[in-house]
Amino acid sequence: MGITIIGYIAGTLTTFASLPQLLKSLKERNMENISLAFVVTFTTGLTLWLIYGILRNDYPIIVFNILSLMFWIPITYLKIKDVLENKGSKSELIT
Amino acid sequence: MGITIIGYIAGTLTTFASLPQLLKSLKERNMENISLAFVVTFTTGLTLWLIYGILRNDYPIIVFNILSLMFWIPITYLKIKDVLENKGSKSELIT
């Protein structure tokens, strides 16, 4: 029992950790220090985790990853928008 | 078999996604747009995932979370250093 609870606390922390990042990004609309490669790869990975959870009928994996995607899809959108609007920082596309 | 491979690809993506973020943060030494609450909570969650993996003897969870911590402990260190050095942004401590 104790071990399962640790897993749920861990999942809750790594999932809801992203909420303050989303709120900060929405408020400041500045994504300069956030890596494009990070947000795109991370969001792609979360999507694959969701597919994995669905295929395995694993509800905790499904729930945690839907929640995570609710935070990371908008963060990724804000980052891509930021890169496209700041033509000066095209080097971003490779970092 | 196919499903397990999806899990490994998902884990590889969500883990190594953080490498370009670490490299960017090390290069630019500017963490302004990254939320303190995010990095601290995320790193704490990863540590709990590692403990969970050890208690369950689950090697993929152990390996992925050790790798993630190798990226997120330095990112968290850089962020805390940034907040402490920029006394002007004390509001960061709550966002």
TrEMBL record, chains A, B:
Localization, UniProt: Membrane
NCBIfam families (UniProt xref): SemiSWEET_2
Main location: membrane
Keywords linked to the UniProt accession: Membrane, Transmembrane, Transmembrane helix
Name the UniProt record assigns to this protein: MtN3 and saliva related transmembrane protein
Residues that span the membrane, as ranges: 6-23, 35-55, 61-80
Source species of the chain: Methanocaldococcus fervens (strain DSM 4213 / JCM 15782 / AG86)
Pfam family, one: PQ-loop
Cellular component, GO, one term: membrane
Topological type in the membrane: Multi-pass membrane protein
Molecular function as annotated in GO: sugar transmembrane transporter activity
Entry keyword annotation includes RNA-binding: no
Superkingdom of the source species: Archaea
InterPro entries: PQ-loop_rpt, SemiSWEET
